[in-house]
Amino acid sequence: MAKRKVIVVKLGTSVLTAGSLYLNKPRLVDLARQCVELKKLGWHVVIVSSGAVAAGRSVLEAEVGNSVAEKQMLAAIGQGQLIHLWQSLFSLFDVPVAQLLLTRADVEDRSRYLNARDTLDQLLVHSAVPIVNENDAVATSEIKVGDNDNLSALVAILANADRLLLLTDQSGLFTADPRSDPDAKLIERVDEIDEEIIALAGGSGTSLGTGGMATKLQAAQIAQRAGIETVIAKGAEPNVILNIQNDLLKSTKVIRFNAPLDGRKKWLLSGPRCNGAIICDDGAVAAVTTQGASLLAKGVTDVCGQFCRGDLIEMKDLNGRVIAKGLIAFDHKEMQSIKGLHSAQISTALGYQGANVVIHRDDLVLLDNVAT
């Protein structure tokens, strides 16, 4: 995909409803206007829009509960309402929009991932504004991305974006919960999302949305590792999108790692869920992280979980810290048999010819701020 200036704007339910139970149309008009202004400045804009369930509630007169089936029903009703509203608003500026519904299965499968990426690419080539949402009407807990924060990070990777903007009901990440602690201070720059930063995040921000600051940090971490800068800002601020782009609004900026990844490794980072883990000694960790080496069986000390050949697994150090993710060349039973062995001993231990490496360098992506 040719490099272009791309920003992914995630709009949470609390932003789109202005804290009510219904979509706030004046706010959506203003958000559309700002996106059009960005396009005039040479940016390609992708919107990850929440609000389908809220839109569905506004259509039905009867009160509806919060069960999975009821929410999926509301999403089925509201998704059409939501995309029609976006289409109407952007048509005021003669800008076409397109609907793109995704589930976890669309990014886990390599072929479907590439299809989604190519579709997104063509939409941007033709100057359309993609409106992306999770396909809540059919998604279940097994296939859901989980929330639109994490979905927006995956979309940012699909779009090869430069920046991910997460608009929420808070100005960013604070040293404490600003809703209960008047002394809480905004953290304006985060270089790395470590355990201390994660501990500052609380639960869900509002009863309307599904994600709080914790999910925004998860999304920011995914984007950071893919070389994408993330900004968390308050969506209710006047001219919020344009002011963020011009550094005129206080927010939390999560600095991207300077480790550009090719398309396959971005898929490894964003797509499949890990099915297990292997524990590696210090020598193996050093070889993989600093020498650009593949992972050999000699450096594996333990095997966790059950997985098949070709599954995505985590590589951990002796302290349990996740160092990398990669596609493994052996299943969990084979790994138990060959852990700690030299490559020349693998075929003898298994009774048949196997791969020479556990995870090839081309099938591995590091999770720290180092070259990949």
What does this entry look like structurally?
The chain is α/β, with parallel strands linked by helices. The protein is about 35% helix and about 15% strand. The chain has helices at about 15, 25-40, 50-60, 70-90, 105-110, 110-125, 150-160, 195-200, 215-225, 240-245, 265-270, 280-290, 330-340, 345-350, and strands spanning about 5-10, 45-50, 95-100, 130-135, 165-170, 190, 230-235, 250-255, 275-280, 300-305, 310-315, 320-325, 365. The strands form two sheets. It has an eight-stranded mixed sheet, sandwiched between helices. A hairpin with a 5-residue loop joins strand 11 (about 310-315) and strand 12 (about 320-325). The two termini are about 20 Å apart. The model is unreliable at about 205-210 (pLDDT under 50).
Task: Summarize the SSE layout with pairings.
Blueprint: E1 6-11, H1 13-17, H2 25-40, E2 44-49, H3 52-59, H4 68-91, E3 97-102, H5 104-108, H6 110-125, E4 129-134, H7 148-158, E5 163-168, E6 189-190, H8 195-199, H9 213-225, E7 229-234, H10 240-245, E8 252-254, H11 263-270, E9 277-280, H12 282-290, E10 300-304, E11 312-316, E12 322-327, H13 332-338, H14 346-350, E13 364-366
Parallel strand pairs: 1-2, 1-5, 2-4, 3-4, 5-7, 6-8, 9-11
Antiparallel strand pairs: 7-8, 9-10, 11-12, 12-13
Helix pairs in contact: 2-4, 3-4, 7-9
